[in-house]
Amino acid sequence: MRTMHTAFIINPVAGRQNATEHIRQMIASEGLDPAAVKLYITRRSGDAQEITARLGQRGEPCLVFACGGDGTLNEVVNGAFGYPCLTVGVLPFGTGNDFIAAFTSLDAARDLGRQLAGEDRLVDLIQVNGRVACNLCSCGFDADVAYQVGAFKRLPFVGGAMAYILSVLWRLLRKMPMQVQCTVDGRQVFSGSCTLAAIANGRSYGGGFLAAPHADLADGQLELVLVKKVGRLKFLQLVGSYRKGLHIQNGQVGKEYAQLVEAHSARSCTITASTKMPFVLNIDGECAPVTEATFQVLPGALRVRVPAR
């Protein structure tokens, strides 16, 4: 039986502080064989994906820990996709850690001993516009906010929280809905003004917003949740309910939200801009403008490590 190697891909700028030294201490305390452990520190966007792909190309069994937030995890997953020799683990040290929160508490996920003693599970992925996502994609208000946060962070004396607040205010001052057409498994289900849309494999995103509280990471289905055109005041009133997942009850849209929200289960779906104006697409926290996005579920496409209880 071949030895399972362990790799730690660390994003040093994820979260509030560099977790590299803490991870080194955890490795030492677990007494791992140094010959079977590799640490990689990312220096730029794309590094985590490239490093993971190189590990996969070796063809040797390897447990690859994404040490950062959901953006780091997305890169590792894209690098691991197509390499069955790789298992992806998550040591959550970023600001958004929604994927691993579907399986366990963040405290358990940050416990390397429990990670090493955990079990592996197969989960679905979302294939979207040439990439894969493990948790959730979205477009509309929330994606626009995430896309602009980076620009505000570059302003003098503006930190992460302030950048997010400024981005929300910026978005509220702009035209709210986007004009889109949506198809589910080849059938058009929506055409018109839409405030936001979430295409979910996992239940939550954005640090706990339960967009699709009924979603299952291993059921071979995606969940499309659409929030139709609403005014600014009504939208602000809905945010709390959306965060708590109250718009979906027992797998169905709640009666009080029936005029504002649509939900569909699908194996594939497409969102297309009805005008030439592109919309911002969020893929596990990575954002870019597009005019069309096609999503397809990939059942059991990724092996993930779930910490021991």
Automatic annotation (TrEMBL):
Write down the required cofactor(s).
Answer: Mg(2+)
MF terms per GO, please? ATP binding; kinase activity
Is Lipid biosynthesis set as a keyword in this record?
Answer: yes
The answer to whether the entry has keyword Ribonucleoprotein is no
Alphabetized, the UniProt keywords read: ATP-binding, Kinase, Lipid biosynthesis, Lipid metabolism, Nucleotide-binding, Phospholipid biosynthesis, Phospholipid metabolism, Transferase
User: Where in the numbering of this chain does the DAGKc domain appear?
Assistant: 1-132
Q: Which domain of life is it from?
A: Bacteria
Q: Which GO terms describe its biological process?
A: phospholipid biosynthetic process
Under the heading InterPro entries, the entry gives: ATP-NAD_kinase_N, Diacylglycerol/lipid_kinase, Diacylglycerol_kinase_cat_dom, Lipid_Phosphate_FormReg, NAD/diacylglycerol_kinase_sf, YegS/DAGK_C
What family, per the record? Belongs to the diacylglycerol/lipid kinase family.
Q: What is this protein called?
A: Diacylglycerol kinase family lipid kinase
